[in-house]
Amino acid sequence: MDSHKQFFSLLCLPLMLLLLSGLQVEGRLHPAYPSKKLFVFGDSYVDTGNTRKDQPGSWKQPYGITFPGKPAGRFSDGRLFTDFLAKYLGLKSPLPYKFRNVIPQNSKYGMNFAFGGTGVFNTSSSYPNMTTQIDFFTQLIQEKVYTASDLSNAVALVSVAGNDYNHYLATNGSAQAFPAFIASVINQTAINLIRIQKLGVKKIVVDGLQPLGCVPQITAASSFQQCNSTFNTLVALHNNLLNQTVTKLNQETNSTFIVLNLFDSFMSVLNHPSSHNLKDPLKPCCVGISSQYSCGSVDEHNVKKYTVCENPKTSFFWDLLHPTQAGWDAVYTNLQTTNALHQLRY
Ligand SMILES: *[C@@H]1O[C@H](CO)[C@@H](O)[C@H](O)[C@H]1NC(C)=O
Ligand SMILES: *[C@@H]1O[C@H](CO)[C@@H](O)[C@H](O)[C@H]1NC(C)=O
Ligand SMILES: *[C@@H]1O[C@H](CO)[C@@H](O)[C@H](O)[C@H]1NC(C)=O
Ligand SMILES: *[C@@H]1O[C@H](CO)[C@@H](O)[C@H](O)[C@H]1NC(C)=O
Ligand SMILES: *[C@@H]1O[C@H](CO)[C@@H](O)[C@H](O)[C@H]1NC(C)=O
Ligand SMILES: *[C@@H]1O[C@H](CO)[C@@H](O)[C@H](O)[C@H]1NC(C)=O
Ligand SMILES: *[C@@H]1O[C@H](CO)[C@@H](O)[C@H](O)[C@H]1NC(C)=O
User: Fold this and answer.
1) Which position among 43, 44, 58, 276 bears the catalytic label?
2) FRET partner for 303 with CA separation of 20 to 30 A, picked from 184, 233, 275, 321?
3) Domain of 176: which CATH number?
4) Which pLDDT tens digit goes with each residue over 49-82?
5) pTM above the 0.90 mark?
6) 66 found inside a domain
7) Is 223 considered catalytic here?
8) What is the secondary structure of 213-278 as a DSSP string?
9) Where in the sequence is the domain holding 216, given as residue range(s)?
10) Which residues' Cβ are closer than 6 Å to ligand 6?
């Protein structure tokens, strides 16, 4: 860790001097780093505002109470992994695609094409699947919103957090065919990663699947006491295949594909909550008052049908599926102890 930091500061010093000398000559400010952009694809684990305001969830109270203080399109009380990764890269969180014509100047930090509820395949959600999200990106490149050099300096973040599997279980559910379905999800993910790479993005981060057997929707069966190993075994299958596929891609291309091991990071935080000032880690903060309601539900008189815990900053999970800002912060802190993120910096 420390030797890494030293290595970076040694590398950066001559670069900064170079930039500073350029600054004197030209007499105007240059950024300390070449401009970098973040492009985001996937689902609610990374979507920062693309879903519609009239739908349940991210645009309704009490979502966003911690950050920005009101509902703003994130499936959490506050910041998501996207926001932490942007900060790590020295950027503002990229603009949700939906707002590209409203605040076009903000497209300079990149763009967030992710839509909550989606998968690599069609799911029950009517929002664009990942193929269509990459089509939107392709369209913007054709419109010359981004140049080749923008793209080669960019980082892409790809999240496949389980909606394909939820949909499979809800519509088909054959346990026998599950391994084959996992293989097809990985195959489609690889097709997507290759498309993003061919568009010119050199660094592509893909999230490994989090321990689905530990999300409150599943652990509700045990009153939020224990993770379900049946689900986590399937997740391990997905993650191993993903790892193999990405290893192969790295051998075949000149791009850097990086798997973020969310499984281990979630487990590390869930197993050692107190080191992150978290309590009762499997218990969600915001829940419906009964099973027909969920976090954010109101009745026809606009009366709340959910409860929010006293202090979201000590909960890992926000609702039945999504971490709190504190949860993501802890996962991000844990990921920084691995080598994965270091490869994204210059
Ligand atoms: C993604 O959605 C598009 C448009 O709805 C559809 O044509 C395509 O088949 C879907 N792709 C996958 C891989 O399911
Ligand atoms: C995905 O859904 C779109 C409509 O949203 C439909 O046109 C398309 O055929 C579907 N594709 C697949 C592979 O199911
Ligand atoms: C359901 O399973 C069958 C047989 O494995 C497969 O052909 C079909 O595509 C599956 N449907 C969905 C929605 O996954
Ligand atoms: C996806 O599966 C198809 C058919 O099995 C195969 O031809 C193709 O090479 C696979 N693609 C990737 C990227 O693994
Ligand atoms: C885990 O989930 C499966 C599928 O829903 C269920 O059959 C099993 O009883 C659960 N196991 C535990 C320990 O809760
Ligand atoms: C795959 O897993 C192995 C063992 O956990 C790890 O060392 C390697 O870095 C992983 N590869 C990728 C591409 O993440
Ligand atoms: C990788 O880069 C080398 C040198 O720039 C080039 O010769 C080679 O064709 C590239 N390979 C691929 C798969 O892009």
Assistant:
1) 44
2) 321
3) 3.40.50.1110
4) 999 998 889 999 999 999 999 999 999 999 999 9
5) no
6) yes
7) no
8) GGSHHHHGGGTTS---HHHHHHHHHHHHHHHHHHHHHHHHSSSEEEEE-HHHHHHHHHHSGGGGT-
9) 35-276+325-341
10) 243, 246-247, 259
